[in-house]
């Protein structure tokens, strides 16, 4: 299971006189991630390195640090914590002591990981969308059965001569059980068309 953040989180630490500020936020799209990166980059920092992952889209930047020492470790921290739809910016103010490539990897990756560990997270739930055409007589029983499926939404989308059309959105892992229940309630008469959200 993958997780995302509930809200923005910050973590700050000093390593050999350099100050590192990690900021992480939920990001539902690449545009949201890039906006957070722009807004969170500190103008007075020497480097604002970042990484984000939104589904299959992931990007990172070393922002002037030696290649592979900042952005990639930040992205690895995101992936290592099973996070998705998350953007992280780590800003560095140089303290006068060189950290070396290994030290930079540990500092950037460690700052990002510490920030994500401290953050409130929630699971990412995949939803299924079901279109149901049922008889008027079955509608109330179908609607009342939804109470045993937390996180479900239902709306009436139309009427036919024989009944009603419902749009039901529920967690994908519960869809098959719900479809069987609708089939039982309607004695096989309801038409269920499955889509993905």
Task: Describe the protein's architecture and organization.
With 197 residues, the chain is of the alpha+beta class. The chain is built from five helices and eleven strands; from the N terminus they run βββαββαβαββαββαβ. It folds into two domains: 3-123, Impact, N-terminal domain (Ribosomal Protein S5, domain 2); 127-196, 2-Layer Sandwich (Alpha-Beta Plaits), CATH 3.30.70. Strands 2-3-6-4-5 form a five-stranded antiparallel beta sheet, with helices on both faces. The radius of gyration is 24 Å and the shape is rod-shaped.
List the helices and strands and how they pair.
Layout (H helix, E strand, L loop, with lengths): L2 E3 L3 E7 L2 E9 L3 H11 L6 E8 L2 E5 L9 H10 L5 E8 L6 H19 L2 E3 L3 E9 H10 L7 E7 L3 E9 L3 H11 L5 E6 L1
Antiparallel strand pairs: 1-7, 2-3, 3-6, 4-5, 4-6, 8-10, 8-11, 9-10
Helix pairs in contact: 2-3
Please supply descriptive tags for the structure shown above.
4-stranded antiparallel beta sheet, alpha+beta, Ribosomal Protein S5, domain 2, guanyl ribonucleotide binding, Alpha-Beta Plaits, Thymidylate synthase
How far the N terminus sits from the C terminus, by CA atoms, comes to 17 Å
Number of helices: 5
Percentage of helical residues? 25-40%
CATH architecture of the largest domain: 2-Layer Sandwich
The overall pLDDT, averaged over residues, is 91
Query: What would you call the structural class?
Result: alpha+beta
User: How many domain modules?
Assistant: 2
Unreliable stretches (pLDDT < 50, length at least 5) are none
Strand order of the main beta sheet, please?
2-3-6-4-5
Element string (H = helix, E = strand): EEEHEEHEHEEHEEHE
CATH superfamily name of the largest domain? Impact, N-terminal domain
Strand residue content: 35-45%
């Amino acid at each position: 299971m993958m997780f995302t953040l509930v809200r923005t989180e910050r973590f700050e630490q000093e390593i050999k006189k350099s100050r590192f500020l990690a900021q992480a936020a939920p990001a539902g799209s690449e545009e949201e991630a890039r906006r957070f990166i722009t807004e969170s980059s500190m103008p007075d920092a020497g480097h604002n390195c970042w990484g984000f992952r939104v589904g299959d889209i992931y990007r990172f930047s070393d922002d002037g640090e030696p290649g592979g020492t900042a952005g990639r470790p930040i992205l690895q921290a995101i992936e290592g914590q099973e996070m998705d739809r998350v953007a992280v910016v780590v800003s560095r103010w140089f303290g006068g002591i060189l950290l070396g490539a290994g030290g930079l990897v540990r500092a950037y990756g460690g700052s990002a990981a510490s920030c994500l560990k401290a953050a409130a997270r929630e699971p990412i739930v995949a939803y299924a969308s079901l279109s149901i055409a049922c008889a008027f007589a079955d509608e109330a029983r179908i609607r009342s059965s939804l109470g045993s499926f937390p996180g479900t939404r239902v709306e009436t989308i139309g009427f036919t001569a024989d009944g009603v059309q419902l749009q039901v959105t529920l967690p994908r892992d519960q869809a098959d059980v719900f479809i069987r229940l609708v089939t039982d309630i309607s004695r096989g008469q309801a038409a269920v068309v499955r889509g993905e959200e």
